From TrEMBL:
Similarity remark: Belongs to the metallo-dependent hydrolases superfamily. PDC hydrolase family.
Organism (species): Roseibium aggregatum
Lineage, highest ranks first: Bacteria, Pseudomonadati, Pseudomonadota, Alphaproteobacteria, Hyphomicrobiales
Protein's name in the database: 2-pyrone-4,6-dicarboxylate lactonase
InterPro entries, per database record: Amidohydro-rel, Aro_Compnd_Degr_Hydrolases, GLI/LigI, Metal_Hydrolase
Gene3D superfamilies: Metal-dependent hydrolases (3.20.20.140)
Length: 289
């Protein structure tokens, strides 16, 4: 593990918010254990092991029923830890993989069988080297045959350049962490409005209203992130999903308490109907439909 890497919270609090039965944690990861599933040689960070057993324990402790496990960059395109976790979870988990242009139909079919339902394209420069857009478009053509979708991770300043590419993608797209806005600017700032307009203009684009712990400047309980999440949940109630982002790779400011993260949910989704859409109906449609 990197010297400055912050391991996940050892004993998160019990959330005050009681999750509805059937709730899905739609963004989380498994890391290692490294002696079974080594980290990728091209990785930009080395995390603390966060094996599937710990994730499933947290799922039950917080009151979630299901997980969507997202391949993280520290495992590169080696999806073995992900597939192993999916097989162990059975119907309680689905996955998002990371693949290269050489992926075969047989390999995709095998991952589909294990519960993978999409791929992630990452544009965050501190996490990955650049991949040419043509490569991503080639992968998109292959995975669309399986009815999969594409998760994209980028930061707000890159949205303008990326928009023409996003419009070319032939599947449902899910944008990680609200497109990572700068929350000091306000929801009315043109940068966040560009993101809102992207969803407004493209009905195939969804977003995860996740990661107040990454976006915050004020720190817990993340008051400064509430207006962003709430704006998206209320405007696009059938295209938002939520996840813990456990085990929170690359946090520098603090170690998030997963119980407190769950307590963030009713602040951005204040009614039972919005909570049901965010936590159950939307992720179930996208991953279990
Ligand atoms: C996240 C965020 C981060 C890392 C990764 O794949 C990854 O390594 O996604 C990050 O450092 O912002 O969603 O887990």
């Amino acid at each position: 593990m990197d010297k400055d890497y912050l391991p996940f919270h050892p004993n998160p609090s019990k959330p005050a918010f009681k999750l509805p039965a059937g709730a899905v944690d739609a963004h989380c990861h498994v890391f290692g254990p490294a002696d079974v599933f080594p980290y990728a040689p091209e990785r930009k960070y080395t995390p603390c092991d966060a094996p599937k057993e710990k994730l499933f324990e947290l799922r039950d402790y917080l009151g979630f029923d299901r997980n969507v496990i997202v391949q993280a960059t520290c495992h590169g395109k080696d999806n073995r830890a992900l597939v192993d976790a999916l097989k162990a979870a059975g119907d309680k988990a689905r996955g998002i993989a990371s693949v290269g242009p050489d992926i075969t139909e047989a390999e995709l079919a095998e991952m589909d069988q294990a519960g993978v339902r999409g791929v992630r394209f990452n544009f965050v420069k501190r996490l990955v080297d650049n991949t040419p857009k043509d490569v991503f478009l080639g992968i998109a053509e292959k995975i669309k045959e399986f009815g999969w979708h594409i998760v994209v991770y980028f930061e707000a300043p890159d949205l303008e350049d990326l928009t023409p590419f996003l419009k070319q993608l032939p599947t449902t797209i899910v944008v990680d962490h609200m497109g990572r806005p700068d929350v000091t600017k306000g929801v009315d700032h043109p940068d966040f409005q560009r993101f809102v307009n992207l969803l407004q203009d493209n009905e195939n684009i969804w977003t995860k209203v996740t990661c107040p712990e990454r976006l915050t400047v004020a720190g817990p309980p993340y008051d400064d992130v509430v207006p962003y999440g709430k704006a998206l949940v209320e405007r696009f109630p059938d295209r938002v999903i939520w996840g813990t982002d456990w085990p929170h790779p690359n946090m520098k400011s603090h170690v998030p308490d997963d119980g407190k993260l769950v307590d963030f949910i009713p602040r951005i989704a204040p009614t039972e109907a919005l909570q049901k859409a965010l936590l159950i109906d939307n992720p179930m449609r996208l991953y279990w439909g």
